[in-house]
Amino acid sequence: MKKRTISKKLILLCLLLAAGILCIMSPLRAHATDSDNDGDTDERTYAEEPGDAEDSGDVAAPNVGNTVTIALNNGNGSVNGALQIVLILTAISLLPFLLLTLTSFTRIIIVLHFTRQALNTQTAPPNMVLLGIALFLTIYIMSPVFGQIYNDAVVPLNNGEIETMEAFEAGVKPLREYMYPQTEVKDVSVFMQIAGYEDWSGEPDDVPLQVLIPSYVMSELRTAFIIGFLIYVPFLIIDMVVSSVLMSMGMMMLPPTTISMPFKILLFVLADGWNLIIVNLVKTFY
Predict the structure, then answer these.
(1) Cis peptide before 156 (omega within 30 of 0)
(2) Average pLDDT by consecutive 10-residue portion of the chain (286 residues)?
(3) What angle do the packed helices 105-119 and 127-149 form, to 10 degrees?
(4) pTM of the predicted protein model
(5) Phi, psi of 212 (to 5 degrees)
């Protein structure tokens, strides 16, 4: 109890000393720099009064020192520059989801995963390597689509030649032209019926985007699993042969996968497996 009383007195004494030092110190002052050496330290750090911009040229000029102005392409277009920046940042946050659903990434990563599982090499290649391969293959496959979107939508919007909705429609059109050939008609028909579009004419232009995207994803999953099954078949045969040989030799306690894995890798290397899988996988999109 005595120790607690002493510690409280020490804390109170320190607080009193700090208060006394603050009272003795002279007050601090901040002022602008006297740039013209005329003794006037009451100068402003901006060239003109804040808020007196009359056009986009005044906004772009280095005018204000105590305000922040965001401008994009000198204010051209129907959307304010700051709002466009907000929309761009929002689109960047949604980019992983768009990459998974609107591109060839889904099919590629599933097929590569099936290949690794069929080889039974556990973590070789690692997940990061598979993701990197799938990402760059996606960029390679989708580069014509991305280029068309940039030329037809982004450039005219920045130049103020088209409105925002026109830019959206122009940007979605190349994606629709890519996705619809990769989508099976039965998937589109099912989602059209679920959405209440009973009188679909069968034309691609009549399919809404909210129907085309899930139809495309379902078709990609089906195609990826079919390719994965075809990759699995030769390696499954090797497992069956090795298992039969081990049973005939009475080695039933020895795991067949341990013996078959070197033969799988040997077969894969001799057949130049990565070249066959990646090249033929890319050809499925053309």
Answers:
(1) no
(2) 53 58 49 52 51 58 48 50 72 80 90 89 86 92 90 83 83 88 87 79 77 90 92 87 81 74 86 89 88
(3) 160
(4) 0.66
(5) -65, -40
User: CB within 8 A of 239, min separation 6: which ones?
Assistant: 256, 257, 260
Asked if residues 91 and 157 have their Cβ atoms less than 8 Å apart, the reply is: no
- For residue 73 the two structure tokens come to 């392409």
Among 229, 186, 176, which residue's Cα sits nearest to residue 206? 176
Kindly report the length of the chain.
286
Burial 84-115 (b: 16+ CB within 10 A, else e): beeeeeeeeeeeeeebeebbbbbbbbbbbebb
Nearest to 220 by CA among 121, 88, 99: 99
